[in-house]
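Per your request, structure below.
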């Protein structure tokens, strides 16, 4: 027997310490994997399809098509291996796998190579088309975050938020089109919609992640694009006692951009797995804590209108009363010009603590009961400081002598600039609690599974914006004369004449007089800031049961039902901030010098060309009452509050089949789900001027058939086909019953309803889900040593899609501001069901240890994938060129690694082409922006002691985003930068110990 990496560990199954079940009973695993796995919580390392469960059943299945078993025998009986599938590549436990040497000897591989081997085993043994990642060892996924690991899978990619991978797109669909499970159970979300934010889940507490690209009838929570199942460790399956601890320090290269911020942090975790009572009782306990900083330079432009000289500012008055552009501005006419800028330096600190616990009881091989609990507490603080510069879209004027390059004005001088110095603060607190109890009993060819679960999120945010400047209102100075220059990276830099770091010049005030004037709830003298505190609560209860029967001769049938009850509540609180001294001033023309005790020095904006700005503590000013909260809008918080209730009952029937062929097998499953949905939302509405409770909802039934087939020609070649109908429910902010009425005081007297005074937007509780018919095909070739090559294609026809529809609405009873509008007719925008379209693509993936070519390259290997996706869906009828949210036409990943004798190193690269991203604005709202393509390069190196008293002690050094690639979005019309977030690089170093 040979051993790699000099780790002299026995080549045995993870469950060899106990009788019955486990990976030693390969047929049992296989049977449960296809027959019933989806009906119970997922096992961390189960060779399975769907969501996996504790592998102890005797239903014949294609999960291991090479295993044969006499119908009706128990899972404890030995299994005859008739082919090479199980011996060439065999998953054992986390941190260890077995591959076969050409001479026939087993080789134990560990670390990253074991993670690859276990992931390949999961893919190979499934009848569904899926991708997976496995932990390198206890408490150690291959990458630094869950989302980062998932984003390396074929057909999958991630979007960065605040410098870290957070949301996942599968096969070109936005994150809301997929469903995320934890141990096979649907999860609630911390954001306002359905997409899971993966940075809420500590990667150290997970053992495996599976992405199902094709569904089966028993896969609960399946999405149009796919289903992502996060799996924790099963202690009895793991089969041995272990304690593992990890500690890593980290540093970001941008330094401390804001006073009091941090550029260094740490991550620590500990995991304990053990078995008791003759291995009938297993326990997993884990805790992970991180304090992780982010520092980045964030450039933001308001937008880029086209310069128009037909006005009094840039044109000459003609006898007919019109204006003709003056000669000095002739070359600017029609060119794109910056409307304003809102650049910041931003400092984030994320503090997260996660705890998992699993108790698994298996008194005999027929009965297993498992209790899982996960709790995470998440807090992120953000400090943002910068200067908002109203330019073309305000009172500033462009001076002659500007420079035009291509289609835009790229340099020049702005006169009469009245900037707003911003000191902003964001705090986000979230708690996730998820747990479930699962029990499975097998007797006489029957298997019964029951599962109850609960998932809850509580989230409370605080957004504080503070405004300061030289004086109150646009009619007072002093003003700035501001030079500007568009740099080669597309960012505009500035050359001011004012000293924005002078605390006697820059005072708390409303430089532009926003929210002032003669209007209901107007702020005297204009707002000096803004305060928002949204609250989100999301709860989900679920109960599931199934019964399955081994029919013999490779056939099995399963009948099951699942019921979920989910309720999500969103309560926004939006208030203006005003200096109390200005409120007390009868003339409301007071600007307030910030007291010294709230000053935090000077913040550098050198990346913009601005030496610095005055910095102070916004939270302290609000808590001290120097800034006072006032009612913020014509419609109070109640009109933007909504709740959503969803009760979903799902029944399914599925048949498994596994028929031997001359050199392999033909296997798969066929079945259907019947899904009954009862959805309802309620909120106050003020569309007609009379506050009323607005209720709405819908009940409907969908039938979702599915078929998965796998033809195994021999030990190495597999052809898979999947055909299914799937659904994805509408976003929750689309299903809400609330409406938000807007009034444009600049359009008083305008008779055009599409450009006029009134407008409103809201949700539609009667929306039905997206429905897609899909076809998938995958060809896979498996080598002997943990290697494979695969080609896959998919085609999805979306029978329905959800669009925003604009209709005319009479706002005659709604209150007005700043005078009487020319018409009470305005535009009401809400989502509706419409026709869909097609999305299709292809994927290629390769995992190749280089010792397949020569033994001199033992330990070296490459992993890579490429995906191409295209769609003809018109996501926005008002903008036919806008792409489908989340869709990158090209996605590529590559990793080169070396691992041997305890030494490991690897470098990785990820690329995704441009896509429509959902980004959080500088405030609580989100919007879609066109994101440019990006390439991310990461690397790491480590060593683990192979013997002696410190065996199991390892060190690791990691580098992330080594090329300092920014996240950039652009204006859809001009192609110029709207937002650029330069995160810099992140380096981590630490130790790990396992015994």
């Amino acid at each position: 027997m040979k051993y790699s990496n000099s780790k002299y560990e026995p080549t045995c199954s993870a469950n060899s310490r106990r009788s019955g079940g486990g990976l030693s009973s390969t047929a049992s695993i296989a049977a449960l994997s296809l027959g019933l796995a989806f009906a119970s919580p997922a096992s961390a390392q189960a060779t399975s399809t769907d969501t996996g469960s504790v592998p102890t059943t005797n239903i014949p299945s294609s999960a291991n098509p090479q295993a044969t078993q006499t119908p009706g025998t128990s899972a404890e009986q030995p299994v005859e291996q008739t082919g090479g599938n199980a011996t060439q590549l065999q998953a054992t436990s986390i941190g260890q796998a077995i591959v076969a040497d050409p001479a026939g000897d087993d080789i134990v591989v560990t670390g990253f190579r074991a993670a690859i081997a276990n992931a390949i085993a999961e893919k190979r043994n499934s009848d569904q088309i899926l991708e997976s990642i496995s932990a390198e060892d206890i408490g150690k996924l291959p990458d630094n975050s869950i989302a980062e690991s998932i984003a390396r899978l074929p057909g999958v990619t991630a979007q960065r938020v605040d410098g870290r991978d957070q949301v996942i797109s599968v096969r070109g669909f936005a994150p809301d089109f997929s469903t995320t499970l934890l141990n096979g159970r649907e999860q609630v979300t911390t954001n306002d919609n359905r997409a899971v934010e993966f940075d809420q889940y500590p990667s150290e507490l997970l053992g495996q992640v599976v992405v199902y690209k094709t569904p089966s009838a028993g896969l609960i929570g399946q999405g149009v694009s796919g289903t992502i199942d996060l799996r924790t460790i099963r202690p009895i399956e793991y089969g041995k006692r272990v304690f593992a601890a990890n500690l890593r320090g980290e540093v970001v290269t941008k330094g401390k951009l804001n006073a009091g911020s941090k550029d260094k942090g740490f991550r620590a975790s500990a995991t304990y797995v053990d078995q008791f009572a003759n291995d009938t009782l297993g326990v997993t306990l884990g805790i992970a804590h991180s304090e992780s900083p982010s520092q980045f330079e964030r450039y933001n432009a308001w937008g880029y209108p086209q310069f128009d000289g037909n006005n009094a500012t840039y044109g000459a008055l003609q006898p007919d009363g019109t204006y003709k552009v003056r000669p000095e501005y002739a070359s600017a006419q029609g060119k794109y010009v910056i409307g304003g800028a809102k650049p910041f330096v931003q400092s984030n600190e994320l503090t997260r603590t996660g705890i998992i616990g699993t108790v698994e009881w298996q008194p005999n091989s027929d009965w297993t009961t498992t209790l899982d609990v996960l709790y995470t507490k998440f807090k992120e603080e953000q400090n943002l400081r910068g200067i908002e510069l109203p330019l073309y879209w305000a009172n500033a004027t462009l001076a002659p002598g500007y420079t035009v390059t291509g289609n835009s004005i790229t340099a020049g001088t702005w006169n009469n600039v009245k900037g707003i110095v911003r000191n902003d603060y964001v705090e986000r607190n979230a708690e996730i609690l998820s747990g479930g109890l699962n029990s499975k009993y097998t007797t006489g060819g029957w298997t019964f599974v029951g599962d109850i679960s609960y998932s809850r999120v509580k989230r409370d945010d605080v957004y504080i914006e503070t405004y300061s400047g030289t004086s109150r209102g646009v009619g007072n100075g002093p003003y700035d004369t501001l030079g500007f220059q568009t740099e080669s990276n597309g960012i505009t830099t500035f050359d001011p004449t004012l000293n924005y770091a002078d605390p006697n010049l820059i005072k708390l005030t409303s430089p532009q007089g926003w929210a002032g004037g003669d209007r209901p709830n107007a702020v005297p003298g204009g707002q000096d800031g803004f305060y928002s505190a949204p609250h989100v609560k999301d709860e989900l209860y679920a109960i599931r049961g199934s019964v399955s029967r081994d029919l013999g001769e490779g056939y099995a049938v399963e009948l099951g039902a699942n019921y979920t009850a989910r309720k999500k509540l969103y309560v926004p609180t939006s208030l203006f901030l005003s200096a109390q001294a200005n409120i007390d001033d009868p003339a409301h023309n007071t600007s307030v010098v910030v007291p010294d005790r709230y000053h935090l020095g000077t913040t550098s904006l050198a990346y913009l060309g601005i030496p610095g700005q005055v910095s102070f503590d916004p939270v302290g000013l609000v808590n001290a009452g120097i800034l006072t909260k006032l009612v913020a809008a014509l419609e109070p918080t109640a009109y933007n509050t909504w709740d959503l209730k969803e009760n979903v009952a799902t029944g399914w029937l599925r048949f498994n089949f596994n028929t031997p062929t001359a050199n392999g097998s033909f296997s798969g499953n066929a079945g259907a789900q019947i899904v009954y949905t009862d959805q309802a939302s309620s909120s106050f509405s003020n569309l007609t001027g009379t506050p009323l409770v607005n209720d709405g909802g819908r009940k409907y039934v969908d039938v979702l058939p599915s078929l998965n087939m796998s033809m195994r020609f021999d030990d190495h070649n597999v052809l898979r086909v999947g055909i299914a109908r799937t659904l994805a429910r509408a976003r929750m902010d689309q299903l809400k019953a609330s409406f938000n009425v807007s009034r444009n005081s600049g359009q008083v007297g305008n008779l055009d309803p599409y450009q006029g005074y009134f407008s409103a937007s809201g949700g539609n509780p009667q929306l039905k889900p997206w429905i897609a018919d899909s076809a998938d095909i995958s060809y896979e070739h498996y080598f002997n040593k943990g290697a494979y090559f695969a080609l896959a294609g998919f085609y999805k026809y979306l029978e329905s899609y959800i669009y925003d529809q604009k209709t005319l609405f009479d706002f005659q009873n709604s209150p007005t501001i700043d005078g009487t509008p020319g018409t009470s007719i305005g535009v009401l925008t809400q989502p509706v069901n419409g026709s869909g379209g097609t999305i299709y693509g292809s994927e290629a993936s390769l995992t190749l240890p280089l010792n397949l070519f020569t033994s001199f390259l033992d330990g070296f290997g490459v992993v890579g994938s490429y995906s191409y996706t295209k769609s003809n869906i018109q996501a926005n009828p008002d903008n036919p060129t806008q792409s489908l949210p989340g869709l990158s036409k090209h996605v590529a990943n590559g990793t080169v690694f070396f691992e041997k004798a305890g030494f490991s190193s690897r470098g990785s690269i990820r690329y995704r082409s441009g896509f429509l991203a959902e980004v959080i604005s500088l405030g609580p709202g989100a919007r879609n922006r066109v994101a440019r393509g990006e390439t991310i390069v990461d690397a790491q190196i480590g060593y683990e002691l192979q013997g002696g008293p410190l065996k199991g002690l390892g060190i690791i050094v990691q580098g992330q985003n080594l090329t300092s690639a920014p996240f950039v979005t652009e204006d859809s019309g001009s192609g110029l930068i709207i937002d650029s977030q330069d995160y810099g690089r992140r380096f981590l170093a630490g130790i790990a110990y396992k015994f």
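The chain has three domains: 2-242, 243-304+339-994, 306-337.

Regards,
D.
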